[in-house]
Amino acid sequence: MVGSEGFLTLTIKMRVRPEPESGEELISLMKRYREALNYAIEVVIENRALSLGKAHKLLYKDLRERYRLSSRFAIDCYREAITVAKS
After folding, report:
1. Backbone angles phi, psi at 4, to 5 degrees
2. Domain ranges in the chain?
């Protein structure tokens, strides 16, 4: 792989037990992310937005405002939508 020397990607699976007072907030975030991902997949497929630039233009603002996702979650969401659409 050219240009990938020195980079390592790691994916982990873990269980998290949130504090009782933050449990509702975490569940709300998970539900919003799921709804945003379903929406993003539809938009990506309908518009054939398989590039990051095109998906960003179509989705970023909507994901941030409509689904109240942080910038990192919004970016991850449309990246995942592109991956799903390509598969």
Report:
1. -110, 5
2. 24-86
